Fold this sequence. Notes:
This protein has about 1300 residues and is of the alpha/beta class. It contains 44 helices and 41 strands. The strands form nine sheets. Strands 9-8-7-10-11-12 form a six-stranded mixed beta sheet. A six-stranded mixed beta sheet has the order 15-14-13-16-17-18, with helices on both faces. It has a six-stranded mixed beta sheet with strand order 21-20-19-22-23-24, sandwiched between helices. The longest helix is centred in the N-terminal third of the chain and has 18 residues, at about 125-145. Residues about 1-110, about 1050-1115 and about 1220-1295 have low confidence and may be disordered. It comes from Gambusia affinis. Its main location: secreted.
Amino acid sequence: MTPRYGAVQSGCLELFPSRLINNPADRCRIPGGSERSPEPGPAPRTWTRPQSLDPPPEPGPCAFFILILLRPRLSSAALRQRNTAGPDAAARLSDQEEFVRLSVQTAAASANEFADIFFLVDSALSQRQFTFFKNELTRFIDQIDAGQSSYRVGLAQYRRDVKTEFYLNAFRTKQQYTRTLRSIQPLPQTGQAPNLGAALRYAGQNFFLPENGGRANQGAQQFLVVVLGETPTELLYLAGQEVRSRGVSVVGMSSVVPVENMLRFADSAFDTVRITQLKDFFTTQQAETAIEDCQTISIADVVFIIDESGGIGNGNFQLIRSFVHSFIGSLNVNQAGVRLAIVTYNEVFKVHAYLDSFQGRTEAQQFIKLLTYRSNTGATLESVFKERGSRKDVQKVAIVVTENESQESVKEAVAELHRFPVRVFAIGVNERTPDLYDMASYPTNRHVFAVDNFMQLKPLRKVIQTSICSDIIQGSVNSFKNSADIKEACHQKDEADIIFLIDDSDNIDSSDLSDTKDFITKFLGEFRDRLDHIRVGFVKYSDSPRFVFDRVAVSNARRALGYINHEGGRTNTGRALTFMERQFNTKSYINGSTYLIVITAGESEDRVAGPAERIRARGVMVFAVGLKRSTRAQLQEISGDPDRTFEVRDYYSLQWIKDDILRPICGPAVCEDAPSDVIFLTESSEKISAENFRKMKEFMKSVVTKSTVGLNDMRVGVVQFSTTTKIEFRLNRYFRKDEILGAIDDMEQQNGGVETGRALTEVSQLFDENEGGRRTLRKNLVLITFNSATDEFKRPAEALRQKGVLIFSIGMVNSNYSQLYEISSSSDKVINEVNADLISELDSMLALKFCDPHRDCKKIEKADIIFLVDGSESISRRFRSMQVFMESVVNRSIVSTDSTHFGAILFSKEPEIQFDLKEFNSKGEIRKAIESLVPPKDITRTSAALEYSLQFFNRERGGRRDFRVPQILMVITDGEASDPENLSKNSDALRANGITVFSIGVENANKNELLIMAGYNQSHVFYVDEFEQLETLYSQISTVICHITKPREIDGKYQKFDMAPPAVHKSSYRLLKRGVPLLLKEGPGVIKVLGSSVTSLYSKGLTLHSSRARVLQLLQVLLIFSDGLDGNVVILKQESERLRTSGVSALLAVALQNANPTELQKIEFGRGYYYQTPLTISDRSISSTILKEMSSVADRVCCNVSCKCSGPPGPRGPSGQPGTKGNEPNGEPNGEPNGEPNGEPNGEPNGEPNGGLTPPTGTARNLQLSFTASGVPNIKTLQFLPLSSCVFLNRARLA
Length: 1295
């Protein structure tokens, strides 16, 4: 079918399926006809299709009118839509099938090129220069054919003030411009210094207004051209930025001012005033630069929801369309990465493109470019997130652009998206802001963008798009704001009374209460289940309050929540708080660790301030959460602190504030005794406003306030940088918060450039010991910057990281995410905020990161510890230092029935038990017992005390040796033993019973005797010269004890899994306990056990090859036991691939009870011939199967043998006798059948590689193999060691 053509003007426009291509040739061939020359006139623009996926520019004066084909060839997206079954398939094609008709409209609309160009001329130009400039401007106006429908030109002069010669809409013809220019004279020279900064601000506020001829609302490019006669001495960046914020490009021109000086305020600069030489610069469409933060998004499902109701108008709709087109241009659109869908709505929704419609960015941009403004038929909004192209476990984002007040049904539909969950961003005009907040996700200050009118979408494009993309990045797994820090912190919290005070009035309904219970369940899920002193209470109130349950265990609280029902009534929050005040006064709550969380949906009918204040005065930390009709003023009266006051739109959104409430509850638990060195490196250039500089200082002060600062705690230093670096104070200058806060207040902005690389180089030495740094402690550098670096920064950043410095990069306003990432080299240490106000929310997150919540040993988790304390005469009044030491060790431990137990023995002439291991199971009770100790004050019979202490580690006195709990005797003495003859024998007897002896000596203690008691293990001996030093010694000792008691070892004789059986199916639990030792039966070994859901492979798997560099020959196998994939399969497969490429030889996934083994196979790699056979824990030969897999991997990696066949399995041996029944601490029977099958498969491989070479001797370590000269691996001597081979136990809980 041949189309017909009709010429409308010179040139040609070719139509291809789904795309317009502007022919750049000067001569155009008419399809089916001959060549013809274009008519005389300006030379046609030349355009070459870029390599990127950006769309071609609008066709220029070279165009042909093309009649619509009866059935045009459809795009690939349209073809896919046509093949999709469904009643609305034809409707889905409507936009694609009218592509040709719309392309004609587009070609006609864009045939006239136009721009607004305003010249701002320095009156310092000489008369000759000014005349030359006028002549150039006259010729330039003639070249561009200036007029009202094409290029508009304006002119002003400046010195101290601005004089406007003519605005953009002053003239319609070139002749009018010429006549006026002839009569213009330069401003008189007054000798005053120019005020270019004021002139730039005036220009931005006045020159481009619609009433003065500005056409931003029509899509015109706008330029402010500053012609300088002398070098300015002012700080001009912010003035130029104010002009740019309105969507105007600033251009500098001068024959006397250096280009680099002009670039301080301009986007572009030229060392000439010959305007005619820059014609192409102004007449060529300036391509929009992609937003780097957006390009960083690797995977997401993004849906644009566009308002096209009657009140929005076609003009605003075109502005919205241009904004969306620009946004898409910054995204990596493809089916494996970012998927896009397009929805419009009036009274109902219409899906124009689903998430599987676009294969790439170009296709999506062309589609949105041709989207028309019209009314629609109905569709459901949720279908776009549930149906075609939607991916499970991929972050979902909705971007709503609206102008009119939305229908209730529309707002409800958008709000319902949060439950999928979908992150909703809302963009609209200021007067409709309440609607935006109704639709947007929490926190709304990050998800709502209100503009005065839609013309601001273009100048605010970068700000809005960067903000949205930054938040999407932070929604990923490995981001600065991820929840892993909170979970680690809450696992260290072992004492807390948490009371929920819940509004159950008529303000809520049953679904609200259900969402509240879900929130509480997830909240409590961050704590360990089996701790005695994490207690939970639930009080609901309306007319009056009542306890549903009070101070019960976490597991019991979760079960009890299911029985709570909604009742209704009035909102008497004040009465409920008074009720709680009486409870806190009369009942025993944990001192200093009691928390009240108030959740209310309405304004209280009675006063709340009085009882709330009295509750806080008792040391209770109060949180206030408001919904629906609650008021912020009343919420803050309840909490007493804006940081503990929260407002959310609906009850489902409670989940978004979970971490914000948990952080102040759990943070102190993990930050105890976690000293570090912190240096803030802050930008101080001229590109920062005074207000933003103040906000940056307030942020630093807030971080310091929320940290534990001191000589032996966190030390702080501050350095400013711009063109040069200025040290405000070093790490050894201030050790008190008030001193540090005062020094930060005194900081003054330097101004200058942004030489980040130089600053990184110079700050490195400040971590040295002579500058106050501490060699053995964590080093943190916090880079706070507002702009991109102008010098080389990669090598200095790498040098800092090589030195062991952790770099946290916080960017604001105009900072560059890619640069920040290259500096920190880790996405969880980078955050980029467009708005400086938003960094105030990061203070507590950063303070928590300084504590290193993921450090290997934070507290003594599970042990039997007895203090054997010297109470002889020499102790006298200094016994209190010993008590402080013991109390500190207790505080550094997790104490509960199933965790650490303590006992104490005082000795002098005779030893005497003060309390044994079974007497107390709370820190408060133990501390109180320690405080009541009274020394007997006699001779020092240490040897007798050692012999006496052995009995108190037995089961009868609370000892848990039978359950493989580490047992420790901590001897504290200040002198020589009166009975040294049996010191060695009695301490050896303790060790023979598995008891580790630590010797702590003070002042006159005999160091040789200390060494004897510790079994000559120097790492178990500690000595201080003075009793006062004993009070701070606990940190060193607790760290050593923590490492030796960490529950992770498994050997071939006894297997210890520290996990709660309910978290893993009981049959799987038993099979694991039986199967893993069989895997290790060829020799003793250790497996590191990581409690983790299979949600992230790469970060956990990194430990598998942390020591790769130390060994040349290495075989690495990651073995996972899992009950299913909790994370996104796509992401897990990507992380699996990262592990493979990083050097891991194979990943084997063993399915636990009820898991889908086929699903787990998706993340495996590196297996041998039987790779298609799933691995399951129920396989009775699983141990042998795994060893065979490892053998195949070893042959492939080490010997280049791709395939090996094994003989048939041998007969199974007879079952052993059942073991005796017993009780483990977690309630599981410890009597497993003690008779394992005698017959493992006895069929050895029939064919060995290389002719059946004999395996060599030697022991492999770290899953590394020993080799002989023949290069054959010794498979039979595999040994697993910590930090090199990991077994992941899905959902296991480590004690």
